[in-house]
Design goal:
- The complex is a heterodimer of chains A (169) and B (276).
- Chain A is mainly alpha-helical.
- Chain A is 76% helix and 0% strand.
- Chain A has 6 helices and no strands.
- Chain B has 276 residues and is an alpha+beta fold.
- In chain B, 35% of the residues lie in helices and 28% in strands.
- Chain B contains 3 helices and 12 strands.
- The termini of chain B are far apart.
- Classes of the chains: A mainly alpha (169), B alpha+beta (276).
- The interface between A and B is large, with 61 and 61 residues.
């Protein structure tokens, strides 16, 4: 049970169940929070870009199994969000709650944009519609609001990540 | 700051993961069977959880929807009342337009599917992601539902069935933009092809002969032309904008769907298959 990979799997599975059963029921303008993206962002902020990429890829793969968009798009989206969160966290010189929320917002926007752009390249021009701005705004705000519980879950999943990261900085 | 060695390793990992994602996309675009099978398994595993959770979550969801959609509902109600009054006036004043009258009356209730049998279902869950618009229904092949069957509400067409298990089916909403539907403009000879433009219940209609008089406010319904996966006369929505390219002799239109896709509770699967 001390294996971080196993713990991250539990976190992702929990996020999948919560997303499927609860989160999707609560929508604003047809858009709900994205827990898969949130887990990728939290992992990136705690463990760095590499950890964010791995967890984001895995959580995106899980979401890919639950939607009808081309298989692999969500993996790219999660990967990008995790990497961006890790890089932005690396670039900040001090930590503050508001800064954490801003990073979560920006990383989720990067993930969503990468999804829409990659989808557009794959022949889905509808993904780059005006509705994209609504999704960016609502998912970004939801990610910023929910990032702290997600960080706690990822700290539980990878306790050594926090220590290694603190040492590296 | 991370050490150069760690940064190098991170770059390799990220590159490998990106390559893997591209590989998955390529396999999926070639119609790889295991992906569909895996998605069906996930659906089967999560469905019971979804059913149980829906019972618990529904009261909270209703409260949430009424809190966030109240303004929209009021506006929509007013718009619909105005439109209803206008349509009533048009219909009674123009006794010649019998065909249009019949089709408008069909919008009042579900009978627009005619004698075709339907399966009444409850919507178990909405789209999991924010892009791939799909909903899950509480009935499947045991009730006679098959892939590609049209799905309607009392307001009109909402989508088609894309996955079926014994007791569940998944519907891809028309707004998703993943497929097209042939439509006709009620009261005219205009026909075209409509496709979703991404989640907000609006469609883009193309390939319309610009010589046909298509106006804002006109009603569209499925054309049901030969080979169409949808039967004729399923209401789709109203035209909200018309753009004409005189050089190409073609008009494009924006269509606002009748059905409110954000708050689907019940839906009917039309047990209809294209001939041949």
């Amino acid at each position: 049970m001390n294996n971080p990979a196993l713990r991250y799997l539990i976190v992702i599975a929990t996020a999948a169940v919560l997303q499927y059963t609860v989160v999707t029921q609560f929508r604003i303008l047809g858009v709900s929070a994205d827990l898969f993206l949130l887990i990728a962002i939290a992992a990136g902020m705690i463990g760095g870009a590499e950890r964010g990429a791995i967890v984001g890829f895995a959580s995106g793969l899980c979401l890919d199994l639950m939607v009808t968009t081309p298989f692999g798009l969500c993996s790219i989206s999660g990967l990008v969000a995790g990497v961006v969160a890790g890089l932005l966290e690396d670039a900040t010189m001090h930590s503050a709650r508001w800064l954490t929320m801003v990073i979560a917002f920006l990383a989720s926007s990067a993930g969503i944009l990468s999804f829409a752009i990659a989808g557009n390249l794959l022949g889905r021009p509808d993904l780059l519609s005006g509705h994209l701005f609504t999704i960016l705004g609502i998912v970004g705000v939801a990610s910023a609001a929910l990032v702290f519980p997600a960080l706690r879950a990822c700290r539980w999943a990878g306790p050594e990540d926090s220590l290694l990261r603190a040492a590296a900085r | 700051m991370a050490s150069p060695r760690r940064r190098g390793r991170a770059r390799i990992t990220i590159s490998l993961l990106l390559l893997s994602a591209v590989l998955l996309l390529t396999l999926d675009s070639r119609g790889s069977g295991p992906v569909q099978s895996a998605r069906s398994v996930v659906l089967s595993v999560l469905s019971p959880l979804g059913s149980a959770a829906a019972t618990v979550v529904n009261p909270f969801r209703n409260a949430w929807n009424s809190a966030f959609d109240q303004g929209n509902l009021k506006n929509e109600n007013e718009t619909l009342r105005e439109e209803n009054d206008r349509l009533k006036g048009d219909v009674t004043a123009n006794s010649i337009a019998k065909e249009q009258l019949q089709q408008l009356l069909q919008l009042v209730g579900i009978p627009f599917v005619g004698d075709t049998p339907v399966v009444h279902t409850r919507v178990l869950s909405g789209a999991v992601g924010n892009f791939g618009d799909r909903i899950e229904l509480d009935k499947g092949s045991n009730s006679g539902i098959e892939r590609n069957m049209p799905v309607v509400t009392g307001e009109g067409l909402i989508g088609k069935v894309i996955e079926v298990s014994e007791n569940r089916s998944v519907v891809s909403l028309l707004s998703s933009g993943t497929y097209r539907v042939g439509f006709s403009v009620v009261g005219t000879a205009a026909i075209g092809i409509a496709q979703g433009s991404g989640g907000d219940g609006s469609l883009r209609g193309t390939n319309i002969d610009s010589r046909q008089a298509v106006t804002v406010g006109a009603i569209t319904a499925t054309s049901g032309l030969a080979g169409s996966p949808f039967p004729p006369n399923l209401p789709i929505g109203t035209i909200t904008a018309v753009r004409t390219n005189e050089a190409a002799l073609e008009s494009t239109v924006d269509i606002s769907m009748f059905a409110n896709l954000n708050d689907l509770v019940y839906a009917d699967v039309v047990l209809w298959k294209p001939a041949g």
